[in-house]
Each structure stands twice: as structure tokens, then as C-alpha cells.
Design brief:
328 residues; mainly alpha; 66% helix
Length: 328
């Protein structure tokens, strides 16, 4: 008997031996139940979600994985993924099993189940598990070369990372979405008539869904505006933990993203970035750059009619033009 046949026999014997009553809600029993139902994929997904501390699944992020995702697991606000509570384990298992049992060659039921569980875990505040299902959808889109679906899922992933407080990882996901859209902007011309795809950042059933036809060019601008917004948050987070160099770096990138956003640019955020980066450059005694940034801040405030901001900008320019004498 070869190894695979031996493994199958052992698994069958264990399944039979450990079969439990239908109302047994222990996670071990629910796992066995997925196998008994003939749903190996549901078993794998449920096992990853239901276990913790065993070195397997989303509860055990390696340093290499964290680096690739640009997630700082040492950040003060980072929360390690926790084992799924028993109270809703049966609901999760049943959603997975029901989707796999159905006769659905196109995989629509499985995708719908993933969207349902991503939303469920998002509402529970378990963003790592929500990302798990978003990533599964993303991987399917990449595998079949569906660029529109890929962009939508990358944006969903970015929003989930943002909700998690992982702003650098969020910005990276938005950046990839923007880059894909920029490469495919010319595709908007093809199929302008009758293109039924719509822009949304969710599963097609939430409040973010719109009836606007999908546009790579427009989504590129929106994604760049999102990059700027998240990087501004990242800069503030860096200040909070005393990483002034990191804050300045994020503000510089934020300005670039604002420029790439075009009509989607948030000019209030752009103005604030000019000001804060100007203050940072002043602290570094880069007077020329600091004055240029505060001048840009002044112009931006004049455009939006922010009289208070105009006053702040003028005071900042004066202080930079007449810096305090150095002690040395």
C-alpha cells in the first residue's frame, strides 16, 4: 500500500472513530464534521481559522511573511490573531461546508461564502481572518488574469489593513492597485459600450457598490488618493512613537501620491502635508525646502478659502525666514 493510500485509510479510521453527535460544537468535532461532509477545502479553511499557537495558519505569521506584507508585528497597536471563539465556530464551519457541497462548477458559492465570512470577521474586529478570505478571492482573480477583480480585491485588502491599523501594508496594497490600473488605463476605451462591471470595494452587496462602470483610469486616481490618505495616517503614527524620520518619509510619499491622484486628490490633506513636512524640514534646518513647502501650504489655503490656515502659513514662513540663532 503506497503512502497516499495508507494516509487515506488512517484518515478514514480516525474520522469514523472521532465522529461525534451533530450538536457537538467543539472545534475538533466541527473539523471532523467538515471531512465527513466530503469537504476537504472547508476542513482546511476551518482548521486554519479555529486553531492557534500550533505554528500553522494565520495565527503564526513568520517574519518573512510579515516583511513581504509590510506588517510591523512589533508595532504597539499590532494584535496577534487569536483563536476563533467557539460561540460562532459552527456558523463559520457551516458557511464553508454549504458552499463546497453545492453543485457550483463556476465557484460562485465558494466566493460568496468567502465574502460573507470576510465581512463577518471584519465586523468582529478580527481583520487577519477577514484578510484571509479576501486574499483567497484575490488569488483566484490573479490566477485567471481578471485584472478588474484583482484591483477590487487589492483595494478591499488595503481597506482591511487600514482598519487593522497597519497603514504601511494598506498603502502598499493601494499602490499595487494603482499601478495595475495605470498599466491598463487604455483598456477603458475597449468595451466602453455595454461594460456591466461596476466599481466597488466589497462583495457587490454593500453600501460601497455603485452603478458607475469600472474605469481603470479613475480607479488609479482614487487608489492614489487612498495611498496619500493612509500614508498621512502612517506619518502621524510614526510621530506617536517618536520616529520622526519615518514620519517625514511618509509625508514625502504622501505628497507624491497627492500629485498622482489628479482630480481625486484631497486638497485639504495635501495642504496639511505641505505644512507638516515644512515644519519637519525646518527642524532639519533645510530652510529653502521648508519655505517652499510653507508657501505651497499658503497657496493651498488660499484656494480652499482657509483663512486660519493662511495665517498659520504666514507665521511659519516668517519663523523660517528668521530662524533662531544656533547655540554653536
Amino acid at each position: 500500500m503506497d503512502d497516499m493510500a495508507s494516509f487515506a485509510l488512517d484518515a478514514a479510521q480516525i474520522t469514523t472513530r472521532e465522529a461525534v453527535l451533530p450538536d457537538d460544537d467543539s472545534k475538533a468535532a466541527l473539523c471532523v464534521g467538515a471531512l465527513v461532509s466530503g469537504c476537504p477545502n472547508a476542513f482546511v479553511d476551518f482548521h486554519r481559522l479555529a486553531t492557534a499557537g500550533d505554528g500553522f495558519g494565520d495565527d503564526a505569521m513568520t517574519a518573512e511573511t510579515a516583511f513581504a506584507l509590510r506588517i510591523d508585528t512589533s508595532a504597539p497597536k499590532y494584535v496577534q490573531p487569536e483563536e476563533m471563539p467557539t460561540e460562532y465556530a459552527r456558523f463559520v464551519r457551516d458557511v464553508l461546508v454549504d458552499a463546497e457541497v453545492g453543485d457550483d462548477p463556476a465557484g460562485v458559492s465558494v466566493q460568496h461564502a468567502g465574502n460573507t465570512l470576510a465581512k463577518f470577521f471584519h465586523e468582529k474586529g478580527d481583520h487577519e481572518k477577514a484578510c484571509y478570505f479576501i486574499n483567497k478571492d484575490l488569488n483566484r482573480a490573479v490566477a485567471v488574469g481578471d485584472r478588474k477583480k484583482e484591483v477590487t480585491q487589492r483595494r478591499r485588502l488595503a481597506l482591511e489593513r487600514e482598519a487593522q491599523g497597519e497603514f504601511t501594508a494598506s498603502a502598499a496594497a493601494f499602490e499595487i492597485a494603482a499601478e495595475i490600473c495605470e498599466r491598463h488605463a487604455n483598456d477603458d476605451i475597449i468595451g466602453v459600450a455595454g461594460d456591466a462591471d461596476t466599481e466597488n470595494d466589497g462583495d457587490g452587496e454593500n453600501e460601497n457598490t455603485t452603478s458607475v462602470p469600472f474605469s481603470f483610469a479613475r480607479t488609479a486616481q482614487t487608489s492614489n488618493a487612498d495611498v496619500a490618505r493612509v500614508l498621512y495616517k502612517a506619518a502621524s503614527s510614526c510621530v506617536g512613537r517618536g520616529d520622526l524620520a519615518g514620519s517625514e518619509n511618509n509625508l514625502e510619499k504622501c505628497l507624491l501620491a497627492c500629485g498622482n491622484a489628479g482630480p481625486a486628490c484631497d486638497h485639504v490633506l495635501e495642504a496639511a502635508t505641505f505644512h507638516e513636512l515644512g515644519l519637519a524640514r525646518g527642524k532639519q534646518r533645510d530652510w529653502t525646502r521648508a519655505i517652499d513647502l510653507q508657501t505651497a501650504y499658503l497657496r493651498a489655503c488660499e484656494i480652499v478659502g482657509d483663512e486660519r490656515g493662511e495665517g498659520v502659513a504666514r507665521v511659519a514662513r516668517v519663523s523660517i525666514s528668521h530662524p533662531p540663532h544656533s547655540a554653536d
